[in-house]
């Protein structure tokens, strides 16, 4: 069993750690980095709750090893709102449109939408809507989430 | 739900990776995107002693064209492939197929070679490789060989790759101008594996079909080349073509099974319709162009 030194940036802060090869990025973020907004539902790539941004792209953090994030920039839901608590536009849109109930799936959905609607790198509306297929929500019936996504993506997808 | 312990290596070259595979004597597993392997590790359906991470090997990445062929580096990520101008120009069918693989989030990690090496019978890329007549370049410490996609798959997840071998390139012939793509996937939700999938290319010259490569996915234990339909299509005049009859031939080559999601009979019935419609539409479009 191997252990590895890794160095990465999490929500703007550089971080050093020693990790076992088999440690998933989701467990590292929750257990070692304290980012418990990374929700782990299925632990095998089905639900999307654990979605984070790695180098700006939305990925499932349970399907990546912590050692593979060496040298990467990782953003979790904790890294989105402003210091004073002002919500990120994606968070605000989900709130306004009743896009969450229990909130378990929400951090993952927020990270997917944030990665695809960033002002400097906006995806086409249909791509944003299609990307929601990567998330399972057991509460809302998706309509509020879709309204929020449509609002953020612009266009009538 | 946590992977069993293993030794993790991230080699920088193909040679080092081959050496690691050889030294492990069958106990090593390769990881690139990990979008299938990570679940298998988490569920402990796979428990390698050694994990060899290919992500740091630059020679395995990227897409290039040479002499009528497109060479795809196996660790090219699926979303990179979708955005790649070279691939869009040279291999539109592959781009269409990749868009159907998993979800946006898994395509950000998942790779072209990973999907082809795994050999899931209901997956889009193995069947598309078979349809287009692609081959894979395979390396080990014992040497290099080419395997035709058509000869790569033996059964579900069973391929001609030896435990010490790795795919170093996917080599796809470029089809001539006048080629139309055919792609249909019936699945319960976007991102699910196909209940019925059809992928292929047909070349038309002067109102006559000169070349055809068609394969099914989700219709048997491997991707299935629709050989009888291909031979019937080649040389066929479009005006006189009976799409339904050719769909019958295409279905005759399949070996679908009953499972939780659909019966074999359902797959055959839907397959017939999908084939007839997809072929007619592709040829109409061509005629209208
Ligand atoms: S916990 Fe990662 S996809 Fe479900
Ligand atoms: S809000 Fe409860 S799972 Fe989505």
TrEMBL record, chain A:
CDD domains hit by this protein: fer2
UniProt entry keywords in alphabetical sequence: 2Fe-2S, Iron, Iron-sulfur, Metal-binding, Oxidoreductase
UniProt cross-references to Pfam families, sorted A to Z: Fer2 (PF00111), Fer2_2 (PF01799)
Keyword Nucleus recorded: no
Claim: Oxidoreductase is one of the keywords in the record: yes
GO MF: 2 iron, 2 sulfur cluster binding; metal ion binding; oxidoreductase activity
Signal sequence, renumbered to the chain: none
TM region(s), chain numbering: none
2Fe-2S ferredoxin-type domain mapped to chain residues: 4-80
Protein's name according to its UniProt entry: (2Fe-2S)-binding protein
Organism: Solimonas terrae
From TrEMBL, chain B:
Keyword tags: FAD, Flavoprotein, Oxidoreductase
The keyword GTP-binding belongs to this UniProt entry's keyword annotation: no
Record SUPFAM superfamilies: CO dehydrogenase flavoprotein C-terminal domain-like, FAD-binding/transporter-associated domain-like
Record's keyword annotation contains Flavoprotein: yes
Highest taxon above the source species: Bacteria
Record-annotated FAD-binding PCMH-type domain positions: 1-177
Gene Ontology molecular function, alphabetical: FAD binding; oxidoreductase activity
Short name of any one Pfam family annotated for the protein: CO_deh_flav_C
Record-linked InterPro entries: CO_DH_flav_C (IPR005107), CO_DH_flav_C_dom_sf (IPR036683), Diverse_Substr_Oxidored (IPR051312), FAD-bd_PCMH (IPR016166), FAD-bd_PCMH-like_sf (IPR036318), FAD-bd_PCMH_sub1 (IPR016167), FAD-bd_PCMH_sub2 (IPR016169), Mopterin_DH_FAD-bd (IPR002346)
Protein name, as recorded: Xanthine dehydrogenase family protein subunit M
């Amino acid at each position: 069993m191997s252990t590895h030194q890794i160095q990465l940036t999490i929500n703007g802060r550089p971080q050093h750690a020693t990790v076992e090869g088999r440690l998933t990025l989701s467990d590292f973020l929750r257990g070692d980095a304290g980012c418990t907004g990374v929700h782990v539902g299925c632990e095998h790539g089905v639900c999307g709750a654990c979605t984070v941004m790695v180098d700006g792209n939305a990925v499932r953090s349970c399907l990546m090893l912590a050692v593979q994030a060496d040298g990467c920039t990782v953003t979790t839901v904790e890294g989105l709102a402003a210091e004073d608590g002002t919500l990120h536009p994606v968070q605000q849109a989900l709130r306004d449109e009743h896009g969450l109930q229990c909130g378990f799936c929400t951090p993952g959905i927020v990270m997917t939408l944030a990665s695809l609607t960033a002002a400097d790198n906006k995806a086409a509306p249909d791509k944003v809507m299609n990307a929601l297929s990567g998330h399972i929500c057991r509460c809302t019936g998706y309509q509020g989430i879709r309204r929020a996504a449509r609002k953020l993506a612009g266009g009538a997808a | 739900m946590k992977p069993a312990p293993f030794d993790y290596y991230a080699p920088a070259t193909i040679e080092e990776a081959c050496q690691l595979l050889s030294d492990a004597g069958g106990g090593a597993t390769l990881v690139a995107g990990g979008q299938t392997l990570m679940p298998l590790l988490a569920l402990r359906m796979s428990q390698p002693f050694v994990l060899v991470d290919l992500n740091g090997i630059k020679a395995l990445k990227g897409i290039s064209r040479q002499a009528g062929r497109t060479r795809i580096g196996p660790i090219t990520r699926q979303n990179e492939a979708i955005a790649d101008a070279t691939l869009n120009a040279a291999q539109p069918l592959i781009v269409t197929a990749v868009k159907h693989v998993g979800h946006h989030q898994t395509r950000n990690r998942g790779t072209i070679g990973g999907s082809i090496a795994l050999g899931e019978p209901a997956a889009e890329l193995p069947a598309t490789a078979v349809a287009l007549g692609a081959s894979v370049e395979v390396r080990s410490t014992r040497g290099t060989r080419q395997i035709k996609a058509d000869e790569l798959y033996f059964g579900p997840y069973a391929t001609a790759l030896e435990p010490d071998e790795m795919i170093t390139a996917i080599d796809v012939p470029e089809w001539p101008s006048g080629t139309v793509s055919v792609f249909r996937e019936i699945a319960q939700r976007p991102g699910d594996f196909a209940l019925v999938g059809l992928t292929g290319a047909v070349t038309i010259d002067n109102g006559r079909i000169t070349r055809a490569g068609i394969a099914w996915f989700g219709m048997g234990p491997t991707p299935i080349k629709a050989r009888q339909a291909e031979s019937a299509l080649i040389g066929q005049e479009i005006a006189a073509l009976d799409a339904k009859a050719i769909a019958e031939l295409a279905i005759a080559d399949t070996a679908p099974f009953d499972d939780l999601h659909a019966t074999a009979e359902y797959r055959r019935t839907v397959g017939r319709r999908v084939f007839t419609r997809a072929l007619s539409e592709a040829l109409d479009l061509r005629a209208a162009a």
